[in-house]
Amino acid sequence: MKPSKKFSIEAGARSSPLSRAQAEEIAAGWPQIDLRMHWVETTGDLDRTTSLRALGKSDFFTRELDEMVLAGKVRIAIHSAKDLPDPMPEGLCVATLTKGIDPRDCIVLRPKESLSSGMVIATSSERREEAVRQLEADVCFIDLRGTIAERLSKLESGEADGVVVAVAALIRLKLVNLNCVYLPGPTVPGQGQLAVVCRADDEEMKCQFSI
Asked: pLDDT per residue over 37-76, tens digit each?
């Protein structure tokens, strides 16, 4: 059973609107804990040129936050579970992994448009490209980086005809009314879930965030 006494801890998360929504989700799930948030731009936020295609399970989006936990600057870091490196950095552990929400991927299209031959689809994932091709083989692809808003702006600018994003991101940002085509097949492990990371020797945090 979770302790009922409310107390405050320092917590870190990325500074994007999606990450802020994820932190709010963790705060709502553990109301006995007051999260004093530190918003951080990680390597993955600052580096907009490196392609995500060959990164694998790296710490591209988690490094700075995990270093803050190890240095004692924050007690926990809040991550998208799919961004966790494998293996985890020495000295850290996952205190909790949320049940998560819709793990699917989708293509966001302009209003009233349908996926069709010749379209330019934005994604930085070979797996997602293959899923798109199952629906329409005659499309081409461009790389995709940035916040969800920045990604979706490629539709308005005409850089892309479709943008592949996680459905969970649209739900958390209250963008569920967009024109979406759901992709077939499995997605990456942890998509739609959130992870709370703490020091491996921080028994209090592991207890507080147990499910």
From this structure: 999 999 999 987 787 776 778 899 999 999 999 999 999 9
Burial class (CB in 10 A: 0-12, 13-18, 19+), 147: middle
Q: Which ranges of the chain does DSSP label H, i.e. alpha helix? A: 17-29, 43-46, 63-70, 126-135, 148-157, 167-172, 203-208
Least Cα distance to 121 among 138, 101, 104 occurs for 138
What the block records as the tokens of 57 is 């399970």
Contact predicate 60/43, CB 8 Å: yes
Q: Round to whole Å and give the CA distance between 147 and 125.
A: 16
pTM summary value: 0.93
Helices (H), 98-147: 126-135
Nearest CA-CA partner of 94 in 79, 104, 107: 79
